[in-house]
Fold this protein.
Amino acid sequence: MTDRSRVDASRLEGVRLSPDGSRLILLLRDEMGQKVSLSLPTSSLNEVLSALPRPPETGTVHEVDSWNIGLAGNGNGVILTLNTPEGVAMSFNVKPWQVQGMATVATYGTTRETARRSIH
């Protein structure tokens, strides 16, 4: 096997467990069609899986530890970033009127009544 620090796999050929069960072996094909084997300790699999993007489960609610708002690079709207206590950050491109609506709901507690004023 050649000495490489990065392999861009084009296809997963198979997955095997080492005979002693201590390693997960991924059999891959790189962009050149060469067979490549990647061996990971099974003790690191939870860390690998937690790095994968997952769609949120319906009804899942996350705590927000901190947030920030900055101008969007294209000049259309602002970027709202919410940070969880676990260090996960999610950013959204929102319009100023949407932020104003959130502030109004947070202040008055409802979207069903017409507020006498909005927070800007």
Q: What stands out?
A: The first strand starts at residue 9 and ends at 17.
